[in-house]
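question for whoever is on the cluster today: can someone run the full assembly for these? two chains, 221 residues total. i dont have access anymore since they changed the login thing
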Amino acid sequence: NAGVTQTPKFQVLKTGQSMTLQCAQDMNHEYMSWYRQDPGMGLRLIHYSVGAGITDQGEVPNGYNVSRSTTEDFPLRLLSAAPSQTSVYFCASMGGSYEQYFGPGTRLTVT
Amino acid sequence: QKEVEQDPGPLSVPEGAIVSLNCTYSNSAFQYFMWYRQYSRKGPELLMYTYSSGNKEDGRFTAQVDKSSKYISLFIRDSQPSDSATYLCAILDSNYQLIWGAGTKLIIKP
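^ ran it for u. tokens below:
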């Protein structure tokens, strides 16, 4: 049981480039989410999904897209990277008792 | 005013001390309160959660909710260097989304 996995662990992008952060979970959780974590600002919700085919925006969705074609996978796409998107990105899935299980994170730097 | 306020610290205490970590919140309707621990360069992991008010104990950790004051606390007894981490409070809102505190960095000095 791997839990929540994320790839890549580290990424450097140039301004304007696009990329996809991968997230997968093997716990059969319906709810999945993406957060970014910046110093002093805690975790901010980017997008979330309550099941395959259903996604919604969180607190800071601009510049990011998501899709949910299967229960297991929830990729996050950066459309045109900007330096303001330099952050640590966490994917999480939520179990029945509202406990969120987090992946190890992706450290993204945009130059 | 943020919905959940948490002092970012850092909080530095000697090994063996009792640690008190706190958050305040603004919405009296909140019912589920959680504490997550995050080690450096890792994802957060759930430490404890409580429903409604009162205390919950798990080993050296005690979570306390005071709904009249809208104040939640996490106490760590006999603190160890391995407890050094960032502690985040999180509260479940009416849309089943978690509202996060900024996290308090805790340092336990040997």
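summary bc i know u wont read the tokens: The mean pLDDT of chain A is 95. Residues 65 and 106 of chain A are 16 Å apart (CA to CA).
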